[in-house]
Amino acid sequence: MTVTIAPAAPQDVAQLRQLYFDVYGHGYPVPLGSDPAEMRRLIDDPHTHWLTARHEGAGRLAGSVAVQTDPGGRIGKLVGLAVHPEQRGGGLAARLTASVCADAFATGTLDSVYATVRVVTPGPQQVFARNGFQALGLMPNAVEVAGCESLALFARYADGVLARRENVGAVPRALVPLLDAAWQSTGVDYGRPRRTDAPAPAVDRPAPVTAPMELITAPGFVRRRFLELLPDPGERFFPLHVPNTVLTPPDGAFEAYADLDRAAASCSLIAVHPSPAAVAGALEPLMAAVTRAGADYVETLLPLADTAGLDAFLAAGFIPSAVYPAMRRIGDRFHDYVLLSRTSRQIDFRAAAVSGRLQPYLLAYLTAWTSTYLPLPEVSP
């Protein structure tokens, strides 16, 4: 039968929920496929491109996909790609991906679209690779779906974006394996940035925090406070994430804003006031508070050029997991960002179907994890 791809409509919500249930069961942690109110809001949202696929004459949907966009950040995220189990194998996932990306880029308001891709099977990775997406990294234990799963980061760019990247002169030594992996996988040239090893001088480092971290989950208050303290969009660049939680030590030396998702057992640290480096010495109690709140995976996003911020998170056991070239536009130039992650669960890659494009990132992650958690004196004969 002929498949028709068309924009999602409010009357599709019930069938969309059934589709995501048929694909994921009760384990789908994203409101886009489970919360009727949020689904209707996104369908009506002018910054969301949501497409459905339906066989002519059939009573149910065959597939769905959406791209949510952040116009201010000129970036989009492809989410909710799902094809009914009875319709797989016919290329419908690739058609949906191509169609929704064409719609999103046609607006002229996006520089890139990214997706976090499951690696339990190779199929999703192939779909994105065939649609012009590049593999950017691997995030172990990133989400709770049907058990704890790892995700891969992929991105596709508008024409000419990668040619206008700003070079970075120096990076922490721990990032070199990740940059080498990115060059092998994508061909994006990071040049030869100088490797830095020296941490910030002791006089510049805040004293270690041992007191339990205070965690406030009041979404409205958190958002208002976030915008008051960080009115400059450049200080809170984490596209398509809105904080719902703030963490602070008892003395209020800093405030860390996070998007805490208990259903997915994950947490994104969006911004720190007064600066990312302010959490140096406090990340252990911060991690303990987030873990108690139900998140086994924590990630943060920092500019590749922010050596002080990167050093603070690297020193606290965060692993360089992905590099997003040309993620942020400033003027006519584009700046690279690094995703760092930390997980409190045991990492097990035995069930992962890691494609050739992701293999360099897997090796880079293992190298970084080993050097962080198994220092050479402990593993030498």
Automatic annotation (TrEMBL):
Pfam families: Acetyltransf_1. GO terms for molecular function: acyltransferase activity, transferring groups other than amino-acyl groups. InterPro entries: Acyl_CoA_acyltransferase, GNAT_dom. Keywords: Acyltransferase, Transferase. This is GNAT family N-acetyltransferase. SUPFAM superfamilies: Acyl-CoA N-acyltransferases (Nat) (SSF55729). Its EC number is 2.3.-.-. It is an enzyme of class 2 (transferase). Residues 3-160 form the N-acetyltransferase domain. The keyword Transferase applies. It comes from Streptomyces sp. Y1. The lineage of its organism: Bacteria, Bacillati, Actinomycetota, Actinomycetes, Kitasatosporales.
